[in-house]
Design brief:
The structure holds two protein chains of two kinds. By secondary structure, chain A is mainly alpha-helical. Chain A has one domain (26-139). In chain A, 74% of the residues lie in helices and 0% in strands. Chain A has helices spanning 2-18, 29-52, 57-81, 85-108, 123-139. Chain A starts with a helix and ends in a 5-residue tail after the last helix. Chain B is an alpha+beta fold. Chain B has a domain at 122-249: 2-Layer Sandwich (Alpha-Beta Plaits). Chain B contains ten helices and eight strands. Chain B has helices spanning 4-16, 27-55, 61-97, 101-117, 144-153, 158-170, 215-222, 228-235, 268-275, 277-290, and strands at 122-131, 175-178, 181-183, 189-192, 195-198, 201-203, 207-212, 240-250. In chain B, 20% of the residues are buried. The chains are: A mainly alpha, B alpha+beta.
């Protein structure tokens, strides 16, 4: 439930800026896009941490800031060097976003989730899936 | 609860947030960051929209069209100026020509050269060749590539005009005009975008080529087997029409005939004289001998 409120905050922020007169010079467009992607990665990472109960405020906020800053700096550096680093940065973020989303999904649709008891989910199959996720999670230490 | 990881995480959450707390500990940071993320995404999208609009040429079409119309108007105006100046020049030259017999002779020669250069209107018998695009369309069920190729054959191209003019020239035609553009030594017939340009002036179909020469010879030259007329008629008989005419009047060339890079080679006798001193001395020696 609270997750939905957080999501709404994002929508509100989007609408506020989209329909405002704030304009970023087009030269910074690439940086802004990669920063947005980095932000998306951290927020989804944070949601996943919240879901799995591993959320730590300091780690989340510092993770958000470093992801954004490092992504922008790498993009800028790549542009200086004539190497399209932003492609690699984008690849990594999208990869992580996909992974985190899938983990969030497993937890959301898990049988043990009390708010989803009404869903007709097969218990046995769900258990196998969760244990799969668990292996994946444990191989990667704290991710926010 | 046979999943130990899940069990611990749930208990963790429960310990961390007592029931009395309004929100879980992740709520505020995540909400604020999501808000910031929303602003980022919105700004990025807006910027990309601007970039896309500026990069695509579609946004500058109106500007280009405006510039094009301006330049075309200027060009038309300047061509009119050229025409009027040429007429003025003609009047002045005629005026001078009346004064002395030598001047009269020179004016006569000048008129002849002007006539040969194509800067005077000319009349005489000849033929009129009308080329126009076919109204045919390729059948709808063809693959797009074949259909595009076929469509191209239904259109009159610069090459068709060139071939007609070339054929007529080979058959001895003396003067040509394509629509109202006189074909002179500097004339180019070429395709610029969708239009065929002659003398740099875009023409609109149908393309009417008027050529002065022997009407019989000219029309027969086009009717050669495998020639341009046959090729076009195979596609669509309406694409080419040839008519003989006993009296054609062709307009004069309106552009400027200015050569900036080429100069006439000096007179043959001049080059002989300047060639070498030896030949001069030889000549004089020979002259001495005969005397």
């Amino acid at each position: 439930m609270m997750g939905w409120i957080s999501l709404m905050a994002g929508v509100v922020g989007f609408l506020l800026v989209y329909y405002s007169k704030i304009i970023v010079p087009p030269d910074y467009g690439a940086y802004l896009s990669i920063a947005a992607l980095a932000g998306l990665d951290s927020v989804i990472g944070g949601a996943r941490a919240a879901q799995t109960g591993k959320f730590k405020r300091r780690i989340f906020i510092s993770g958000f800031l470093t992801a954004v800053i490092v992504a922008v700096v790498l993009t800028w550096f790549g542009e200086r060097l004539g190497v399209q680093i932003f492609l690699a940065v984008g690849f990594v973020f999208v990869y992580r976003i996909m992974q985190n989303l899938s983990i969030i999904r497993w937890y959301l649709l898990d049988d043990e989730n009390p708010s989803l008891r009404w869903l007709p989910v097969g218990r046995s199959s769900s258990m196998v899936e969760v244990s799969k996720v668990q292996v994946g999670v444990e191989s990667e230490p704290s991710k926010t | 609860m046979d999943n130990p990881f899940y069990a611990t995480s749930v208990s963790d959450v429960k310990e961390a947030q007592p029931v009395s707390s309004l929100a879980p500990r992740w709520f505020w940071p995540l909400t604020i960051m999501t808000f910031i993320l929303g602003t980022f995404i919105a700004a990025a999208l807006k910027t990309q929209n601007i970039v896309r609009r500026e990069m695509l040429p579609s946004s500058s079409y109106s500007g280009l069209a405006e510039a094009y119309v301006n330049y075309r108007n200027t060009m038309e105006l300047q061509q009119k100026t050229i025409g009027s100046l040429q007429k003025q020049n003609e009047v002045l030259v005629n005026h001078v020509g009346r004064r002395s017999p030598e001047m009269k002779e020179l004016t006569k020669q000048l008129d002849e050269y002007r006539f040969l250069a194509g800067i005077t209107p000319v009349q005489g018998p000849g033929i009129v060749v009308t080329l126009k695009d076919s109204v045919k369309r390729p059948p709808a069920d063809l693959p797009s590539q074949v259909s595009a190729d076929l469509t191209a054959t239904f259109i009159i191209h610069d090459l068709d005009l060139q071939r007609v003019v070339n054929e007529l020239r080979a058959a001895g035609a003396e003067a040509f005009a394509v629509n109202d553009q006189r074909v002179v030594t500097t004339t180019a017939i070429r395709c610029v975008g969708p239009a065929i340009q002659v003398n740099g002036v875009p023409l609109t179909p149908p393309y009417v080529i008027r050529a002065i020469g022997d009407p019989g010879t000219l029309s027969e030259s086009l009717a050669l087997p495998g020639g341009i007329a046959e090729q076009l008629r195979q596609t669509d008989p309406s694409m080419i029409q040839i008519e003989r005419s006993t009296a054609l009047v062709l307009p004069s060339y309106e552009g400027s005939l200015m050569f900036r890079y080429s100069h006439p080679v000096k007179d043959v006798s001049d080059t002989d004289n300047s060639d070498s001193g030896d030949s001069g001395s030889y000549d004089s020696a020979a002259g001495d001998g005969t005397q």
